[in-house]
Amino acid sequence: MRFLPTAFLALLVLGSSSPVRADSAQPPAPNEANTDVARKLYEDGRAFYRQKEFAKARSAFLAAWALRRHWQVAGNLGDSERRLGLFRDAAEHLAFAVRVGASDTVAQAQDRAQAQEDVSRMRAILDEVTREVATVKVSSTQSGSEIWLDGKHVGQIPLDDPMFLDPGQHTIETRAAGQSLTTISLNVNRGEMRDLQLPLSSRSTSTTAAGSSVVLRPETTSGFSSTRTVLLIAGTGTTLAAAGFGIWFLTRASAAQSDVDRLSAQTRQQDGPGACLAPDAIAQPVCTQLQQAADRKSAATSGETASWVMTGAFAAATAGIYVLWPQHDREAALVTPQLGPHGGAVVIHGTF
Fold it and tell me: What is the DSSP secondary structure assignment for residue 326, as one 8-state letter?
């Protein structure tokens, strides 16, 4: 990947670009020593990248980034992280690079065409990386509140860039004055994009809490709230139950067959073959026992067959739900708490 090495080194002398997220540790104040070290680390990172030593390249770019937060350092860092499969980190750094690089008037004044080419290249890599993570754009009427993701501080609302999440379960929380206002649990998938509008909590002042809203989807709630999840669990349970009955009936049929074999052998020894087929044979106790054992085997075999048929049907239905049922509702529900001097209400908007 080719990013303005000469222009970047010149820009290091001029200073860093736009500020980063509020939670990010601030780099040391610009001075000649920091500039020299950052320049050396940046060149080392580029050399490692050309040699396809991406882990070493990332380490060098990270060190340069800690000293001087420049968008070209972020772009090279993000590309190295992409090569290493660190897609979430790569998306964060590339998003910063694209946003800041597009408005870097210093770089564009030096070589506008080259700067635009670099930003376009970074944007293309960002598009590739975001297919591997979930992109969540957070908005809220509560400007200035703090956003926390999985217990780690992200920044203040409004955020400069979307949040990038690895696939799986996550918790997003808003806080103000040290108090938790809103906590949402959501499950995200690879390549997913969400617009998340966070409400204010009733613990905040009524003048700002009224009319706040949150977008709720099946994955944003925990437990068994998703219809798809409930059906999958029920389907799996009934499949296992039917299979259990099948095994039980199989055991009973096997035991009954053993009784039939034993009693048949006994009648042959006592009265010869076909003794229980005679008209008066039913009066003999051993023949009665043999008939009862045969009836038990027949009933158990019928139950076993029915159980295996139901097992297959339930398994097929559960698999169909898993494959064909969409994991996300096409329409979201907008939940709006309304607070007033004489009471409150919750208004739900959406398609059901």
Answer: -
Tens-place pLDDT, residues 64-116: 888 888 888 988 999 999 999 999 999 999 999 889 888 776 655 566 777 78
- How confident is residue 31, by pLDDT bands cut at 50, 70 and 90? low
Least confident window among 126-130, 208-212, 256-260, 299-303: 208-212
Residues 274 and 212 in one domain: no
**DSSP per-residue string spanning 125-160:** HHHHHHTSSEEEEEEES-TT-EEEETTEEEEESSPS
d(Cα 315, Cα 319) in Å, to the nearest integer? 6
340 and 211 in a common domain: yes
**Burial group, residue 62, by CB count within 10 angstroms (0-12, 13-18, 19+):** middle
C-alpha to C-alpha distance for 48 and 40, rounded to whole angstroms: 12
Kindly state the average pLDDT of the residues 105-133. 82
pLDDT digits (tens, 9 = 90+) for 280-298: 555 567 777 777 878 888 8
CATH number at residue 189: 2.60.40
Q: Which pTM value belongs to this model? A: 0.51
Give the pair of three-digit tokens for residue 13. Answer: 């002398």
Token pair listed for 50: 């050309």
Q: Based on the domain organization, do 207 and 340 belong to the same domain?
A: yes
Q: 321 is written with which tokens?
A: 């739900």
| Domain assignment of residue 253, given as a range | 233-324
* Same structural domain, 251 and 271: yes
The total of structural domains in the chain comes to 3
Is 227 inside any structural domain?
Answer: no
